[in-house]
Amino acid sequence: MSAPATGVDARLERAVFIDRDGTLIEERHYLADPGGVELIAGSAAALRRLRRHGWRIVVVTNQSGIARGRLSVDDYHAVAARLDALLAAEGAWLDATCYCPHHPDVTGPCGCRKPAPGLLLAAARSLGVGPARSYMVGDKASDVGAGLAAGATPILVRSGYGRATEGEGGLVEGLTVVDSLVEAADWILAVESNSQSGAAR
C-alpha cells in the first residue's frame, strides 16, 4: 500500500496506532491477570525506533470482556499498568492507551469498538495527530477497518490472529501484510524515508 496522501496538514503530528493483544503483546483470551502480559519479541524495540523518528505511539484495544463480565475495569487497568512497566523496563513508552469496553450484543452499538474509528479519532484530537499522516497496525480485520475509517494507513501483522485473518480473505486490495510489529515499523520508516527523499528532489 502506498504512503499516506500528500497535502495533509504537516503541522499535525504523526502516530502509529497499535492494537494490543496479538500485536504488541501475546494473545491471551480475555486477559485479566497482569501476570499474563508478555511482550511479543522485538515489540519494545520497534516502539523505540518509531519514537526516535518522531512518531507518537497509541494503543487502541477492544476489551469486550468487560461488557461480557469476563474482566473488570480494574482488571483492565492493572493489565495496562503491567504493560507500561514492561515497556518502561526496555526504554519504551506509549503516548496513550485507549480501550472500548463495549460489545454490541450486551451494551448495544457504539462508535469506539473497532472497526469503528472512534478510539483513533479521539486520540488523534487529544494528541494533535493527523490521521491521514498516521498508520494503524493490528492482527484483525477490525483493526484494518478502523484504520481505513479513520483515514490512516492500515498494516496487518501475522502475529496473534493475523495469519487466520489473512487466510480468510476479503481484506482491502493492496493491504500491506507483514509478520510482526517489528516488520511493520521497518516498513513505515522505509516508506516515510522514501517519501521524504522524493519530496526533496
Describe this structure in words.
- This protein is of the alpha/beta class and 201 residues long.
- The protein has eight helices and six strands, in the order E-H-E-H-H-E-H-H-E-H-E-H-E-H.
- It has helices at 43-52, 64-67, 73-89, 104-107, 118-127, 141-150, 162-168, 181-200, and strands at residues 15-18, 56-62, 96-100, 135-138, 153-157, 176-178.
- Helix 1 (43-52) packs parallel to helix 8.
- It is globular.
- 39% of the residues are buried.
Helix count equals 8
Please outline the major beta sheet: 6 strands, parallel
Net shape = globular
**Structural class designation:** alpha/beta
> Overall pLDDT, averaged?
93
Which segments are poorly predicted (pLDDT under 50) over 5 or more consecutive residues?
Answer: 1-8
Total strand count, please? 6
| First and last CA, distance | 22 Å
| β-sheet strand percentage | 5-15%
Could you give a quick summary of the protein structure above?
The protein is of the alpha/beta class. 41% of the residues lie in helices and 14% in strands. Strands 3-2-1-4-5-6 form a 6-stranded parallel β-sheet, with helices on both faces.
Write the layout of secondary structure elements.
Layout: E1 15-18, H1 43-52, E2 56-62, H2 64-67, H3 73-89, E3 96-100, H4 104-107, H5 118-127, E4 135-138, H6 141-150, E5 153-157, H7 162-168, E6 176-178, H8 181-200
Parallel strand pairs: 1-2, 1-4, 2-3, 4-5, 5-6
Helix pairs in contact: 1-8
